[in-house]
Fold this sequence. Notes:
Blueprint: H1 4-7, H2 33-55, H3 61-68, H4 71-102, H5 107-122, H6 125-133, H7 135-138, E1 141-145, E2 151-156, H8 163-188, H9 192-200, H10 205-235, H11 247-258, H12 261-290, H13 303-316
Helix pairs in contact: 3-12, 4-5, 4-8, 4-10, 4-11, 5-8, 6-8, 8-10, 9-10, 10-12, 11-12
Amino acid sequence: MATPQDVLPAPAPAQGPPPAPAPEARVVARRKPGQWIAAAVALLLAAMAVSSVIRNRAFQWSVVADWFTARSVLDGLTLTLWLTAVTLALGFVFGTVLATMRLSTNPVLRTLSWGYIWIFRSTPPLVQLLFFFNIGALYPTLGLGIPFGSEFVTVKTVNLIGPTLTAVIGLTLLETAYAAEVIRGGILSVDRGQLEAAAALGLGRWRVLRRIVVPQAMRAIVPTAGNMLIGALKGTSIVSVLAVSDLLYSVQLVYLQSYQVIPMLMVATLWYLVVTTVLSIGQYYVERHFAKGASRDGLPPTPLQRARAALVKVVRA
Length: 317
């Protein structure tokens, strides 16, 4: 007969300590010696180029230093910046009108805006400036009246448009054509579904434009507009053929008298580098501003933030 001790379960065998977890495998990046060799070669070539520029006496760096902040050069730089700001601002104002016409359902407005953009993008800027500068030879008088009929008001074009006004008109008309396409592309980049959702919610047209279309379109507009700004800055140099005292024309007047062509051209080059660098930095931060909310991961750190983080890491190490 079985006793109570016989029916009790046998005690479980004694267990030792739990096994230690296996160490995690460390991921090691694949070595890429080819990239390091290419980087070393590129760095060597860049150092050779910089050394050749610095050590070349033909640049006459002492002359460059003397004329870099000269009054005539700074006056030319001021006019260059003024021309860039005025022509680009007016170009975007008129370009907005043209872009609206291109997006209109009216075929007449679409055709007229397309024709304007086609003409001014197809002809060289220098040719356009020369046409406007010689407007008196093309049209001795300008009138306002009925087409193919009588004119109500007429104005003689002799000495009507000076070199500076010619530069403003010519560059503004050119920038208008490019700005219209930039704005049109930005507007078309906005998802149509969001516009339909806004219409379903009963939002007004101006509110949709201000709160939905413009913030998203600016993400596509700002990079191209920044390139247009830098291009307009450099493009103002063509007005020197009209004897407009911009930066390039100012240095040309100096080297035509002193025959120091290379150092004076270097003065203009350095100023263009300085201004375009400042504009590029501004463009970078404007792009960051309109990129808010575009990614779930947030904005990447700025170069200054990365440099600060690297400095903190070095100090802590």
